[in-house]
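Design request, tokens follow.
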């Protein structure tokens, strides 16, 4: 999840073809340019350019520019920490979505109380306008200069492998040359601080301006492994201007109010009992109703779109995931094996060999077995199999986050088997199906992301990958939505389109994915009989619409801030009599609504009417029906809505029709 930036917009600056040796400062004079791309590589503006080079400007408000800004802020933070505590040892400090962090090994953990002193130290460094100066070093030179930094020495030893480190080590070392960045006093040339880093960086610390802030502290294992030392992490955010920082902070304040973990407790929707374990949720009755409605709407959409529903078990023998490739490519994300079925005699000798079983992390191998269970004809294709399948993934405890990152999740999973000439039409159909269904949940602001091959983590020929990627690209372009590249972001078995949706406060969530797979049909030896009688291999399409029920539940809860449209609300109507003598009349109306399938309740408690109204408004009930003497005398009710507005004297039949119509049509309005 990320937030839509509200960055200042600078004029489009064209690439420059260099005619003589110079540097980026000689090519780009616009102060919004903070770096450049040369030959596909990001470079500092101080990088020497040669005749024939083409330099593309990187402005501070671009995606690359924001990453450079935030990574530079991380360096300033680390310099500030060591200026106050010289014994602090450095971990890593990469840019992340909307900000940055830096990890430190310190004797005393940080607290937010330290932010005042740290911020003042950072402000001094920013005002000094220190230059970020890149130096190429050998491994021996790097070890000598950073001998007092044990974590940096470990990264030097990793070098190329660190580029694949999921915890941000790739910003410091990777394949190719080692570099150190010095923070240099622009007046005296004195080096104030240094860090192992690949860069690039801002030309000067002064360009950080006042659009940054320190946000929070956390503990984090070195390089993300629980086997390693626990470090102290400081998170910050950085933006091109103070106004953009304030806008970001306002969004965070609104997001905190909407936090699904907080709302889940307030509305009694779900919990994470310690007795069950980390990342494993239980849904309470009200949450269960919301979840039921979410799934039921999707089931109706699936049937309309020609899907067939299937089911598969939660565990399987290891061989299935060996065949699919998951044990080769995804084992770190799986729960450990359970060794079962072994038998021993009285002396303890093994009389029957056991087998390893795994909790399933994916549903696709099971669907392949369903396809393979009998002969298939081309006339059956496309064959669309769908399942609400619960899967289990061994997420690291530090990454768990409410319902958005769990260890037990239910995927609205689907796999479509097609002939090669059906691929493009089916992908286009699936994308249209995805967008229509998401709009039904009340989301309507989308863009697409195209994830392409990571050569080091993929299987299959270049030709297959190129053809598949081009097919997805064409479908994405023809959809008319904005298309953003995600280089190397595909799974090992094929490229994918993902739908990114913006919520009510502008945050972006990755939701649906449509992914091609030429690999599993081959590994499972899937075949169908073609029109000419030959046996052919189908193409497999993975389609996840909501991603997971749990995560999508959290997204909708925050999108609506708990005020769900009537069709999703756990309690749709509450009847509130002005006084006890109106309970019987109002109870009859509530009974009629229940008979029509409406989730309606009568509040016959002893609370005063105003307290009842406050209680049910807080609980986000869409419709409150209030009845007093005039309403009863006229065969009517009065509506009160969540925003405090009220409509009086509505005839009972009209009121019932208004409620049931809004629910049946899944209207977003009340």
């Amino acid at each position: 999840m990320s937030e839509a930036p509200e960055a200042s917009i600078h004029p489009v600056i064209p690439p420059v073809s260099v005619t003589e040796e110079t540097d980026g400062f000689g090519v780009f004079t616009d102060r919004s340019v903070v770096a450049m791309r040369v030959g596909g590589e990001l470079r500092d503006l101080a990088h020497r350019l040669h005749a024939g080079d083409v330099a593309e400007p990187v402005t501070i408000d671009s995606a690359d520019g924001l990453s450079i800004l935030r990574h530079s802020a991380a360096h300033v933070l680390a310099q500030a920490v060591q200026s106050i505590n010289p014994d602090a040892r450095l971990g890593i400090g990469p840019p992340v979505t909307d900000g940055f962090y830096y990890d430190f090994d310190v004797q005393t953990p940080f607290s937010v109380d330290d932010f005042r002193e740290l911020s003042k130290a950072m402000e001094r460094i920013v005002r000094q306008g220190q230059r970020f100066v890149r130096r190429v070093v050998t491994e021996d030179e790097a070890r000598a200069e950073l001998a007092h930094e044990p974590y940096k020495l470990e990264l030097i030893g990793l070098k190329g492998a660190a580029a694949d480190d999921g915890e941000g080590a790739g910003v410091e070392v990777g394949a190719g040359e080692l570099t150190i960045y010095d923070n240099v006093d622009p007046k005296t040339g004195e080096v104030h601080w240094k860090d192992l880093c690949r860069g690039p960086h801002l030309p000067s610390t002064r360009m950080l301006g006042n659009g940054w802030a320190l946000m929070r502290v956390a503990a984090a294992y070195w390089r993300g492994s629980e086997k390693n030392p626990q470090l102290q992490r400081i998170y910050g955010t950085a933006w091109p201007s103070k106004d953009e920082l304030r806008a970001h902070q306002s969004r965070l304040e609104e997001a905190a109010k909407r936090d699904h973990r907080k709302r889940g407790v307030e509305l009694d929707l779900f919990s994470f009992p310690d007795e069950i374990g980390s990342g494993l949720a239980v849904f309470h009755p009200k949450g269960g109703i919301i979840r039921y409605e979410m799934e039921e709407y999707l089931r109706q959409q699936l049937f309309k779109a020609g899907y067939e529903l299937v089911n598969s078990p939660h565990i399987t023998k290891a061989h299935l995931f060996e065949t699919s490739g998951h044990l080769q490519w995804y084992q770190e994300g799986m729960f450990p094996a359970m060794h079962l079925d072994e038998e021993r005699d009285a002396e303890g000798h093994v009389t029957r060999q056991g087998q390893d079983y795994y909790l399933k992390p994916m549903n696709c191998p099971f669907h392949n077995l369903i396809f393979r269970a009998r002969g298939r004809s081309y006339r059956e294709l496309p064959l669309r199999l769908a399942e609400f399948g619960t899967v289990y993934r061994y997420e690291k405890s530090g990454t768990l986050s409410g319902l958005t990152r769990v260890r037990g999740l239910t995927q609205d999973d689907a796999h479509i088997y097609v002939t090669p000439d059906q691929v493009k039409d089916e992908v286009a159909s699936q994308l249209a199906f995805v967008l229509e269904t998401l709009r039904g949940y009340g989301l309507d602001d989308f863009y697409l992301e195209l994830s392409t091959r990571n050569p080091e983590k993929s299987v299959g020929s270049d030709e297959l990958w190129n053809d598949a990627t081009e097919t997805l690209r064409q479908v994405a372009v023809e959809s008319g939505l904005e298309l953003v590249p995600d280089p190397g972001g595909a799974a090992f078995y094929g490229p994918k389109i993902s739908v990114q949706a913006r919520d009510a406060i502008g945050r972006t969530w990755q939701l649906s994915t449509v992914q091609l797979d030429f690999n599993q049909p081959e590994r499972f030896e899937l075949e169908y009989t073609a029109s000419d009688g030959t046996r052919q291999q189908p193409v497999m399409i993975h389609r996840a619409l909501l991603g997971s029920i749990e995560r999508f539940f959290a997204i909708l809860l925050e999108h609506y801030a708990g005020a769900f449209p009537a069709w999703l609300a756990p309690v749709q109507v509450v009847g509130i009599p002005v006084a006890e003598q109106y309970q019987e009349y109002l109870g009859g109306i509530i009974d009629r609504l229940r008979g029509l399938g409406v989730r309606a309740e009568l509040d016959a408690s002893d609370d005063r009417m105003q307290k009842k109204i406050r209680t049910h408004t807080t609980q986000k009930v869409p419709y409150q029906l209030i009845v007093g003497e005039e309403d009863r005398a006229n065969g009517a009710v009065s509506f009160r809505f969540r925003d405090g507005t009220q409509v009086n004297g509505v005839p009972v039949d009209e009121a019932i029709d208004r409620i049931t119509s809004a629910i049946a049509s899944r209207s977003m309005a009340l």
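Comment from the thread starter after seeing the answer: thanks! The radius of gyration is 29 Å.
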